[in-house]
Known about the structure:
The chain contains 15 helices and twelve strands. The protein is an alpha/beta fold. Helix 1 (14-36) packs across helix 7 (165-185), helix 2 crosses helix 7 (165-185) and helix 3 (62-76) runs parallel beside helix 7.
Amino acid sequence: MTTRPDRIAAEEAPELSSARRVLTTESRSLTALADALDARFVAAVATLDTVTGRIVVTGMGKSGHVARKIAATLASTGSPAQFVHPGEASHGDLGMITRADAVVALSNSGSTSELDAIVTYSRRHAIPLIGITGRAVSPLAEQADVALILPSAPEACPMGLAPTTSTTMMLGLGDALAIALLERRGFSAQDFQVLHPGGSLGQKLLRVADLMHGDEELPLCRPETPMAEAILIMTNKRFGCVGVTDPQGELVGIITDGDLRRHMAQGLLGHSAATVMTEGPKKVIRPQALAAEAVGLMNADEPRVTSLFVVEEGQGGGRRPVGIIHIHDCLRAGLS
């Protein structure tokens, strides 16, 4: 009989003890790193904020893998960045670095020989250099315009050799730089969506304006419109409703299938839109609202609806319809 993994007692699984030791060691190192941040971190962010070109991130070995991730995070949060392999730099890739750039170099020892070409190049051409290293007394720290020193912490490897704690701190410090830079520059959720149009992030950040129907597709009528005509508009536009606007073009009411049923026995076709409509519809939404908010509003409370009028509010509090969004639009975009 096979024993389920979740039934193995802790004392029977040395792997659990090993994993907890690693995670505890690394989490403590991140706390120590947060406590050690000082004016040098502020200077590093300020330096990166002045870059008009790209932020070039580099490192060798495990530090190089971390550098690739940091470059990707910077680029996706509004700071153009790229990874340059230090080994390739001395064989022509130094041409990827310009005087408009800044270099962020990662080396736990601070004396990685493969970084020499990039460090020398940055000094020769006055390219800002930020070093991330575990040793304050090292070639990288001494040459850098800003040296961010990782606090002393043991590697999680029992031999103290495999880069684990040190790379975790580098990764965390890279994230801290990217987010501090993002906030300093006022990078918004809308900016983020522009850089992440695909996948679940892009779906979550879609705005109503990206999905709504407008102009000729809007089902609208005036208060004096006969219901026979209003029903034709509702049928032709296929949104299951029609909005009622006053002479100023502001939304004053809405007619839904429910309103039609409620007035069916009262000579529906003899009425005008004004006598059948529900006045001042509460369920409307702004163009810049997230599409996910539209889904929530459609499903919230009673009555649940399948369409929302998209309105822009005027100075006098009036609401001018500029579009309409249907639940199917949201579902097609991957929202639910």
